[in-house]
Write a structure and sequence with these properties.
Radius of gyration: 23 Å
Protein name: Anthranilate phosphoribosyltransferase
CATH class of the largest domain: Alpha Beta
CATH superfamily of the largest domain: Nucleoside phosphorylase/phosphoribosyltransferase catalytic domain
Keywords: Glycosyltransferase, Transferase
Strand order of the largest sheet: 3-2-1-4-5-6-7
Largest sheet: 7 strands, mixed
Shape: globular
Strand content: 5-15%
GO molecular function: anthranilate phosphoribosyltransferase activity
Domain Glycosyl transferase family 3 N-terminal: 35-99
CATH topology of the largest domain: Pyrimidine Nucleoside Phosphorylase, Chain A, domain 2
Biased composition (Basic and acidic residues): 1-22
């Protein structure tokens, strides 16, 4: 039996279907979301990426529940198949920012210094050493808001690491901002910001592939921090991230190819850091910090200073340096590394 025969309602022979509906050839009205799928999926030479405005409205409809689930799956996979376009992704990010209520911290709040997305999902992840880097920065007076979802990581998700360090995730953007004001650090799960957006990320288990929503979530910047440090899994995405940041007039964003797509610097080899500052992009080469390439250290003992491990500490120190460069506290890699090492050593006063 052909597919169309399998899904067509069976006729009863009396002008009705088996479901009792009158047989008709009347065309169904087109769904309002259909034009976006048609634009992306037309034949060769006719399809195109969405404009910024189209991308914004399309994701707004998805997050508002105005698109059919079948349409959502088709939409996400067509976006992936065509490749990520900065103009299109910018519109998607604007819709996501609207959905999560992104914007500056309220009056009287000291503000957030550094936006830190954590959406890594690689198979080579271990402990989230970047979390210790963020906490050390907070101890030094830099206000850090980390947000994310690590549902598909093979390593330790941030949500599992937080209790080991005596911390809890924020339950809302407002609570996260309170935490940043009080301690200098907060972790805000994507599902607490926008359950529907988090649900789109989780469609990876059904579709078998990541979608551009992963890029979108990384670029939300929920508290309009003036600086951000971002990691990607594949180098081609770096230009997309910087292109979106430029279109959104973000003051500073540093992007690296990090382990599992996290903003984390492997200390065993040089790393290229791509910085957008004031609309100008530059690439800095950060040197290797250690010859070691593996670690068996644990998160809490390293944080407390009860254990020493060259690779783990090199990862943390190198990642702190990324943040200092992102914020403009240092402008030269060697100076950033030295400042990061000093900051790490005095994390407990």
């Amino acid at each position: 039996m052909r597919l169309e025969e399998a899904v067509r309602p069976e006729k009863t022979g009396h002008g009705e279907t088996r479901h009792g509906e009158a047989e008709t050839d009347a065309a169904e009205p087109e769904h309002p979301f259909a034009p976006y799928i048609r634009t992306l999926g037309r034949g060769p030479g006719r399809s195109r990426s969405l404009t910024r405005e189209e991308g914004r409205e399309a994701l707004r409809m998805v997050l508002a529940g105005e698109a059919d689930p079948i349409q959502v799956g088709a939409f996400l996979m067509l976006l992936r198949y065509r490749g990520e376009d900065p103009e299109e992704i910018t519109g998607l990010v604007e819709a996501a920012r609207e959905a999560v209520g992104a914007g500056p911290a309220p009056a009287g709040h000291p503000g957030v210094d550094l936006d830190w997305p954590s959406y890594g999902s690689g198979r080579t992840r271990g402990a989230p050493w970047f979390l210790l880097a963020a906490l050390a920065l907070a101890r030094a007076g830099h206000r850090v808001l980390m947000h994310g979802s690590n549902a598909f990581t093979s390593g330790m998700p941030v949500l599992e690491a937080l209790p080991l360090l005596g911390l809890l995730p924020a339950r809302s953007r407002a609570e996260a901002l309170e935490g940043v004001a009080a301690t200098g650090f907060a972790y805000l799960p994507l599902r607490a910001m926008c359950p529907r957006l988090d649900g789109l990320l989780h469609l990876r288990s059904l579709l078998g592939l990541r979608s551009p929503v992963n890029t979108v979530a990384r670029l939300i910047n929920p508290a309009d921090a003036p600086a951000g440090v971002d990691g990607v899994f594949h180098p081609p995405y770096i230009a997309v991230h910087l292109g979106v940041a430029e279109r959104l007039a973000r003051p500073r964003l540093l992007v690296v190819k990090g382990g599992g797509g996290e903003a984390e610097r492997g200390p065993g080899k040089p790393v290229a850091a791509h910085l957008l500052a004031g609309g100008e992009a530059e690439v800095m080469t950060l040197p290797a910090l250690t010859e070691t390439r593996a670690t068996s250290a644990e998160l809490l003992p390293l944080w407390r200073g009860e254990a020493r491990d060259p690779h783990a500490e090199g990862t943390v120190i190198g990642t702190i340096a990324l943040a200092l460069l992102a914020m403009g506290r240092e402008s030269v890699p060697e100076a950033a590394d030295a400042a990061a090492r000093a900051l790490w050593e005095r994390r407990h006063g």
